[in-house]
């Protein structure tokens, strides 16, 4: 059976890549390609909608799709845990739609995040440095947020990480108690380092994305999962069997541990994907 795919944000880099994969992969057919001028009604008739748009647009794309019983694969910035929880409540009990939200389509990135979550129980001092191209307007990245969430989840019984002097702005933004530092530089596509400190040693888990080809396999795996999705699934780690045991359950809403928590600025999930061109 052929799955009809509508891509919203088809003119962006990720949109073009997904369109190419749909055209090349047996079992899929491009039903519609929507850009910033297209009415959302163009997606009607699709089996799966792929959203690679803008944070301010993504919510309306998903709302329209689920209201019309279409399953969605989200690869767009702006999906905070609070918004995800609201979406879960909205489609709970429905079997005609579902949403898969993927912060990063790279298999290597998912592996690095999973290993970081495993190590989180062994080290109390943990920080994340994420680097992306200068054109990326939001921070921290969705991958960094997801990694910090899973580190926090792994440390549920141990408590927050050690983050001294966290009242200083230069110490980074805390996500699930983990300090996250964001760099935006020319000459870089995407890189993340998770640094663990212990007595007399450090361990660094690094992932470096060299080209958009790193996303191809993950996109196809996520598309396959979206075809039959029910409810809300967050993260490629919930789709891919890494052979590391059962993946953690989705985290509760993010809590920033700081001297004066600012719950109005909860970090948003960023799919590390593209915007309309």
Automatic annotation (TrEMBL):
<feature type="domain" description="Dihydrodipicolinate reductase N-terminal">
    <location>
        <begin position="4"/>
        <end position="105"/>
    </location>
</feature>
<protein>
    <recommendedName>
        <fullName>4-hydroxy-tetrahydrodipicolinate reductase</fullName>
        <ecNumber>1.17.1.8</ecNumber>
    </recommendedName>
</protein>
<dbReference type="Pfam" id="PF01113">
    <property type="entry name" value="DapB_N"/>
</dbReference>
<keyword id="KW-0520">NAD</keyword>
<keyword id="KW-0220">Diaminopimelate biosynthesis</keyword>
<comment type="similarity">
    <text>Belongs to the DapB family.</text>
</comment>
<dbReference type="InterPro" id="IPR036291">
    <property type="entry name" value="NAD(P)-bd_dom_sf"/>
</dbReference>
<feature type="domain" description="Dihydrodipicolinate reductase C-terminal">
    <location>
        <begin position="111"/>
        <end position="231"/>
    </location>
</feature>
<dbReference type="Pfam" id="PF05173">
    <property type="entry name" value="DapB_C"/>
</dbReference>
<keyword id="KW-0521">NADP</keyword>
<dbReference type="InterPro" id="IPR000846">
    <property type="entry name" value="DapB_N"/>
</dbReference>
<comment type="pathway">
    <text>Amino-acid biosynthesis; L-lysine biosynthesis via DAP pathway; (S)-tetrahydrodipicolinate from L-aspartate: step 4/4.</text>
</comment>
<keyword id="KW-0028">Amino-acid biosynthesis</keyword>
<dbReference type="InterPro" id="IPR023940">
    <property type="entry name" value="DHDPR_bac"/>
</dbReference>
<keyword id="KW-0963">Cytoplasm</keyword>
<keyword id="KW-0560">Oxidoreductase</keyword>
<keyword id="KW-0457">Lysine biosynthesis</keyword>
<dbReference type="InterPro" id="IPR022663">
    <property type="entry name" value="DapB_C"/>
</dbReference>
<dbReference type="GO" id="GO:0008839">
    <property type="term" value="F:4-hydroxy-tetrahydrodipicolinate reductase"/>
</dbReference>
<dbReference type="InterPro" id="IPR022664">
    <property type="entry name" value="DapB_N_CS"/>
</dbReference>
